[in-house]
């Protein structure tokens, strides 16, 4: 039953049914406190029990405080047989920290003064030491957070209960052991402990500006396979229904996506999103519908809409008496509060096309396994969604709303910022969450309002509402807000705010404020932005704010003051180096904190030194700095990609192959990484591997990259994969024909294809053409004539294929076009080479008339290809001699023409 209790805590589900069982009721009571948003009571009991028990030996420093806490836990808390007590305490500490810094309202406890029994001044010094202990790779944790002790204790306890090495005392170059989880050897209790440790590590990562360090690697390892959920589910009691088990799997996959977003591996989100969608039986699709958006609009125009319906998991978490955040209306005399959609089913079929993206394949149907499944036509919309009223859709379950939000974050992280088409898609997602009736979870609804506000602040007609809504949401957290513009709510349900905090990407209160400052900055309200950054104590952001508007001197002053106050802030040193382009600051940043961005900046500096530096590019130094960076943070796709490009540049192909292999493992759909990996293999004479990589590249959204297709074609030629050569040739012509014209045709390759075709046996009437024959004929005889303008050589190739097809009349037409292409050259009368080429073409045409003219023509028996072929031969020669008379009548070409005329 312990497993079921812990599973309910993971899901924040009701434990009322466990009060009458054989389970230890002390644990049930603890679980009730945690799920009910009263974790702080367990923390208070812990502080009261061990009041004054933590003793610091010597001066107050980061190491002395951590040592004192470790000694205290070892002596007083960590005891054999008490692992469950330790896990409950770790969970309560983590949840209380999150309440105080993320969801609000803050629980007013002071555990530091209780456990340490120090004066107020010493308590402040201990808090600063605890905050310094949460720094990762030279990046300081946010210095004005509340109660860092709770998170530090939670992390220490979770390291103990999982039996893993501590991440607080890792030395440079040392890699901690990564957890190994399997459903056979890992107990359910241990899997739960690992699960909470991953949650705590993601909380820790959210305290620093950029993800880095071993915390990201450990969290990713815990979440990397479903064995975590399998290990918990396998030990649940037999009477637990499948519905509850599916909830656990759904929560796992949602947190897996959250982890990928947190550590910048968002390209791995889609598989987990697809799986959780199937687990919850969630149905949704994006399509087009006509809508009116203003009060005076008479005619509806095309817009985007999400049609969605939940099947399971209604009201998963305990969120009774949930009070949704206040929504600010648009208060516009022009715009509607929300678009009014016309019924999709009443619109003509041709109007149901999702028309916001150009050149879509309208014949493609409903594509389910995408971030945004699209239905391009009415008949592609699933029947269960087609009946929905677009203006009054049913309420979605909280898990399904979270799925939409996570898809929104994935799209934001993988698409260009401020793209109007992307913003329309995001708005459609948010509208589906916000404009639904029924009970609303505070966290899910507040996050949706926040994301909508960010989009609205980019548009003149909605910016006022967006900024006011952002200000309101910051104030509703009820955390460290000095003066409020919005009246406080009377009722705050802490449990509701914490229900889904571990499935949604973390947004600490200071990050909300900082985002508001960024919005002020983007609007040119520099003073307000700086005031917020200064209030938040974000010196680096303040400096970047001034640097962004060109006041680099002020930025340097702020950074120097920051370094003076905290000489261990590696990020401040690195930003100073970025502004001054001075390698000494980056080297200092790396020395004091192993800050990976400092190494990346050094690598870029030596790869492409500024002109004023007076130094030459140094690829060896670049590779060394990138290697140091990747040792510390191996999950950085951008760093691996740069590393591989430098390897290609300086001829280190094995290094480049390793780098791009890591890139494609982090993002299996990055076409350029696959292409560059193939380039490295080609240089290493590994053609089959290169060919395989190029196949992955062209399958990974590279349909318009002609260089990748050209490489694919050349490798396929070397491997005699002629079907693929033909496909690549066709694609190259399709991509480049508008800009390069007949330059898009690779004639030597096309000649080889033609040779293969015409040397194959033409099928009998009862036989079918092979795939190659059919495709090659279509390409040579239909596609190429639409592209060719001046290439006689290309027309002759078409003529050969037409003759092989037993269409001599079409072959003769191609010979005529080949001759015209050459004879219309304006250099004919001044350039002897052009004259000789034209004579050659004339001889070819005369030979074609002679050999094809008397064959059976287009209209069957009795018809000829060219009845008057002799006349046409003489006319062609006569026309050419007229052009060359007086200029080329003493040339060898002239003599050949006269001889050809005499032979007719």
UniProtKB/TrEMBL annotation:
Ranges: TPR repeats: 637-670, 671-704
Segments passing through the bilayer: none
UniProt keyword list: Repeat, TPR repeat
Protein name: EMW1-like protein
The species this protein was found in: Saccharomyces kudriavzevii (strain ATCC MYA-4449 / AS 2.2408 / CBS 8840 / NBRC 1802 / NCYC 2889)
Gene: SKDI14G0210
């Amino acid at each position: 039953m312990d497993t079921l209790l812990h599973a309910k805590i993971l899901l924040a589900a009701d434990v009322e049914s466990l009060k009458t069982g054989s389970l230890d009721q002390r644990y049930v009571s603890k679980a009730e406190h945690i799920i009910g948003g009263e974790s702080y009571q367990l923390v208070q009991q812990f502080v009261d029990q061990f009041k004054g028990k933590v003793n610091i030996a010597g001066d107050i420093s980061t190491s002395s405080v951590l040592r004192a806490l470790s000694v205290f836990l070892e002596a007083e808390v960590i005891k054999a047989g008490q692992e469950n007590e330790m896990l409950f305490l770790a969970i309560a500490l983590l949840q209380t920290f999150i309440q105080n810094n993320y969801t609000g309202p803050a629980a007013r406890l002071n555990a530091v003064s209780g456990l340490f029994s120090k004066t107020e001044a010493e308590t402040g010094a201990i808090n600063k030491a605890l905050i310094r202990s949460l720094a990762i790779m030279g990046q300081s944790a946010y210095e004005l957070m509340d109660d860092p002790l709770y998170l530090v204790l939670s992390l220490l306890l979770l390291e103990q209960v999982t039996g893993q090495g501590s991440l607080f005392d890792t030395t440079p170059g040392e890699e901690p052991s990564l957890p190994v989880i399997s459903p056979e050897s890992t107990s359910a209790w241990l899997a739960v402990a690992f699960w909470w440790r991953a949650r705590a590590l993601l909380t820790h990562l959210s305290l620093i500006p950029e993800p880095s360090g071993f915390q990201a690697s450990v969290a990713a390892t815990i979440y990397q396979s479903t064995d975590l959920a399998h290990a918990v589910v396998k030990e649940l009691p037999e009477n637990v229904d499948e519905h509850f088990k599916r909830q656990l799997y759904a929560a796992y996959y949602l947190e897996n996506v959250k982890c990928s977003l947190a550590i910048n591996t968002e390209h791995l989100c889609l598989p987990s999103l697809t799986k959780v969608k199937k687990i919850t039986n969630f149905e949704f699709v994006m399509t087009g519908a006509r809508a009116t958006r203003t009060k005076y609009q008479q005619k509806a125009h095309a817009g985007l809409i999400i049609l969605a319906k939940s099947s399971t998991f209604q009201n998963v978490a305990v969120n009774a008496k949930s009070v949704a955040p206040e929504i600010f209306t648009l208060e516009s005399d022009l715009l509607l509060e929300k678009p009014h959609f016309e019924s999709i089913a009443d619109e003509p079929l041709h109007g149901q096309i999702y028309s916001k993206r150009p050149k879509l394949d309208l014949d493609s149907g409903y594509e389910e396994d995408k971030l945004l499944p699209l239905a391009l036509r009415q008949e592609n919309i699933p029947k269960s969604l087609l009946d929905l009223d677009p203006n009054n859709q049913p309420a979605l379950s909280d898990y399904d709303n979270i799925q939409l939000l996570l898809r929104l974050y994935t799209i934001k992280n993988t698409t260009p910022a401020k793209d109007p088409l992307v913003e329309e898609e995001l708005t459609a997602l948010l509208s589906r969450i916000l404009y639904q009736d029924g009970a609303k979870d505070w966290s899910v609804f507040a996050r949706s309002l926040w994301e909508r506000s960010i989009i609205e602040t980019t548009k003149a007609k909605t910016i006022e509402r967006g900024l006011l809504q952002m200000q309101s949401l910051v104030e509703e957290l009820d955390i460290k807000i000095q003066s409020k513009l919005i009246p406080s709510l009377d009722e705050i349900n802490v449990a509701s705010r914490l229900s889904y905090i571990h499935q949604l990407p973390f947004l600490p209160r200071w990050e909300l404020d900082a985002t508001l400052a960024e919005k002020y900055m983007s609007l040119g309200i520099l003073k307000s932005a700086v005031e917020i950054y200064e209030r938040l104590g974000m010196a680096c952001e303040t400096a970047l704010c001034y640097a962004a508007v060109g006041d680099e001197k002020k930025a340097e002053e702020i950074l120097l003051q920051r370094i003076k106050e905290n000489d261990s802030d590696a990020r401040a040193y690195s930003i100073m180096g970025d502004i001054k382009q001075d390698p000494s600051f980056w080297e200092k940043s790396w020395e004091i904190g192993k800050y990976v961005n400092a190494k990346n900046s050094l690598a870029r500096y030596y790869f492409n030194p500024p002109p004023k530096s007076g130094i030459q590019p140094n690829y060896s130094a670049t590779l060394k700095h990138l290697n140091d960076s990747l040792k510390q943070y191996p999950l950085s796709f951008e760093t691996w990609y740069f590393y591989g490009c430098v390897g290609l540049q300086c001829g280190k192909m094995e290094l480049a192959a390793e780098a791009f292999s890591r890139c494609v493992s982090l993002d299996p759909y990055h076409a350029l990484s696959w292409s560059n990996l193939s380039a490295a293999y080609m240089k290493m004479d590994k053609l089959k591997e290169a060919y395989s990589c190029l196949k992955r590249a062209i399958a990974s959204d590279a349909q318009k990259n002609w260089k990748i297709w050209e490489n694919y074609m050349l490798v396929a030629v070397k491997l005699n994969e002629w079907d693929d050569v033909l496909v690549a040739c066709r694609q190259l012509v399709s991509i480049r024909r508008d800009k390069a014209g007949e330059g898009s045709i690779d004639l030597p390759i096309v000649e080889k294809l033609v040779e293969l075709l015409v040397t194959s046996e033409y099928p009998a009437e009862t036989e079918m053409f092979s795939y190659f024959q059919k495709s090659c004929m279509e390409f040579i005889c239909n596609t190429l004539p639409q592209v060719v303008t001046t290439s006689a050589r290309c027309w002759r190739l078409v003529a050969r294929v037409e003759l092989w097809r037993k269409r001599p009349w079409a072959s003769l037409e191609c010979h005529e076009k080949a001759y015209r292409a050459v004879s219309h050259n304006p250099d004919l009368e001044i350039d002897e080479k052009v004259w000789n080429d034209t004579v050659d073409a004339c001889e070819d045409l005369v030979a074609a008339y002679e050999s094809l003219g008397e064959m059976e023509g287009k209209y069957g028996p009795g018809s000829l290809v060219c009845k008057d072929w002799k006349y046409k031969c003489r006319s062609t020669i006569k026309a050419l001699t007229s052009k060359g008379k007086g200029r080329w009548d003493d040339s060898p070409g002239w003599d050949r023409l006269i001889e050809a005329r005499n032979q007719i």
